[in-house]
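dumping this here so i dont lose it again. seq + smiles for flavin-adenine dinucleotide
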Amino acid sequence: MKHTYDLIIIGAGLSSLMFLNQYLKKTSGQDILLLEQKNIINSDQTFCAWEGPGLTNISKDFQLKPKKIWNKIVLNNLNDEIKRDIEPYSYVCFDGKETLETLLSTCKEKITVIKNEKVLLLSYEDNVHNVTTENGVHYGMLIVDSRNNIKKHEIKSSLVQQAFVGNEIELTHDRFNSDEITLMSFSQREDEIEFVYILPFSKKRALIETTVFSTSPKLTDIEGRHQKFLKKYEPYKKIRQEKAIIPMAVVSPDEERKILKIGISAGMVRASSGYSMRRIANWSTKLGPHQLDESSVSSFRYYSSKWLNWLDKILLNVIIKYPNKGPFLFMMLFKRAKMPSLIRFLSDKPSAADLINILFCMPKRLMLKGLVKKEND
Ligand SMILES: Cc1cc2nc3c(=O)[nH]c(=O)nc-3n(C[C@H](O)[C@H](O)[C@H](O)COP(=O)(O)OP(=O)(O)OC[C@H]3O[C@@H](n4cnc5c(N)ncnc54)[C@H](O)[C@@H]3O)c2cc1C
């Protein structure tokens, strides 16, 4: 007789493991299978998020140890520099490998985990999902799918992508101010937004990333400019590298019966920033204590705020239509906005007053142009 799981979770990345961490604290008794295509569950990423009053405490709620916490941020463009103290808020960085390993350790005794198991096909027969992998077929009543496979019709905004190449480097001499992060140090480009992001872990060690927001980013070109930028820190030792292209889009996932999409293709990446850890944390910590099954699946679906989506779509339109104005837009926002309002906005938890503050701080004419483009889409 074939074994049928209550839940089959595809992918053991950030969204699946943060979900399982919270879900298994509140429910028990289900037969759960987790399938991961890679032979190890780890990540070369660093996950960063804003923390502070009114926000879910990721470190505490998920038992994660931050790699480093900062309370000061810097942005610069040409000769203009903004330095802001963000206390009582902070910018927290978690090591990717440690994060996924810790999350997995909190749930692996309660579920079945199979690595090196790439899912090739899903089909549905006699009320059961058949999950075909490279090694066979698994059967499940309900699927939780974290694969990054956004379909075209699910994208509800113009598609901008965030591409970045980053290196964690170690110098022989003190160079970095380890108390403050450089959130955005803009380069002057006509057809895309480009900035360098610096996370100093110590005076000698930092993650330095060259990031581009563009509709057609070219990773090899970015890598070339990134390596050129790094030359100013020579001599240095390369500790590790991370590079990726992440969609920056408002996504409305299909409501497929008996399939719960999570992660990137469920719209859990914030369109205007490319961040997802905060969204995943907000969603997974507020799930109720009921079991996930056919009758409850709709209450588990992730829906992003219409207001945030509306604002993000305008921002994305501005990025597409006037990329050379991007630095001006972000600089103005970080210069004028109240930091708590801006951080709650970036963390999907703005109050009505925060949204009004953000709207007033944005360059009006530019935003109106973004709005006009949106209506013509
Ligand atoms: C380098 C990098 C840095 C980032 N930094 C930040 C940050 O600082 N802050 C932030 O909030 N966000 C950040 N992000 C964005 C976001 O947090 C991550 O992309 C996050 O990993 C998304 O979680 P996920 O579960 O949707 O996808 P993933 O973590 O990619 O998980 C999906 C999993 O599914 C597996 N899989 C895929 N297809 C199959 C298949 N067919 N069969 C079986 N398994 C499969 C994959 O191997 C993977 O393990 C970063 C992203 C990257 C790439």
